[in-house]
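Consider this one:
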Amino acid sequence: MIKIITDSTAYIPLEYLKENDITVIPLRILYDDEEFDEGLPGSYESFFEKFTRTKIFPKTSQPSLMQFIDTYNKIIDNGDEAIVYTISYVLSGTNSVANLAKSQCKFPEKITVIDSQNCCQTTWGLIMETKEMIDKGMSRDEIIQEIAKLQIGSQVTFVPDSLEYLKRGGRIGKLSATIGNLLQLKPILTFNQSNLNCAKKVIGTNKAIAELISMIPKNIKRLFIIHIANSKFFDLLKNKLKGMFNVPTYEGEVGPVVAAHIGPAIGVCWIC
C-alpha cells in the first residue's frame, strides 16, 4: 500500500491526518533560547502570543536525517511504499534531507520524494489529490505524473498585516518598511513552482483583499482560506469569499516556520 509522508509546513489538521493515516515529520523552531517541533494547527497559540509582542526573531531548521530514515524504514518493514511531500527547496533544506534519507534507507525504490514546489495548505491540497488517487488504485508513477500537472497552476498568496516582519527578516529595508506602514502599503506575495514574487503593491487592506481575490483562477479544484497568527483581517477575507467559488473550501492556520518570514497575514491557496 502507498503511504503518505509530509513535513509540518503542509499545516494539515490532526483529524485529517488520523483519518488518512498520514505521517508528519516536523521542522524545528529556535526561538528565545528554546528549540521545539513546529507542531500542528491548533498548537501555535503560545508561540504567536510571544511572537507578536516581542522583537525576537525565530530561526528554523529542517528535520534530522534519522527522522526521515526511521520513518521510511518503518513503512518499508510493514510491506508498504511511500510518497513524501516536502516544502519547496528554496525555502528549506528539508527536501535535500528527505532525498538523502531515501538513499540510506533499506529499499530506496520504495520511496518517492516530491518537492511540493510550494508550501502551506497548497501542499495539503496536493496530498488530498494524492489520497484520492491512492484510493482509486493508481500506482506511484501514475500519481507522480498527475501531481506534476497540478503543481503548475497551484499557488499560495499572502497579504501581510504589516511590513514589520519582512523588515526583521531582512527582505526589505527599514526605511521602506517605515514608509510602507505609514502609507498602509500592502504587498501581495505569491509563491508558485518555487518562485516567490511580489505580484502587486496596493494601498489599504480592502484593495489588497480585492486584488488577492481577483487572482484566484476560475478553474480551481480546491480553495484554502488561510491566516497567520489570527490576523485581524481573516474574517473580512472569509466574508468576501463566501459563496464565490463552487469548489471544496477549507479554512487553515499557518504555523511558525512560514510566519518567521512574513509575520501575521491573510492569504489563499488553491489547487488547479
Q: What stands out?
A: The longest helix spans residues 121-135. Confidence is low (pLDDT under 50) at residues 171-183. Residues 2-151 form a domain with the Rossmann fold fold (CATH 3.40.50.10170).
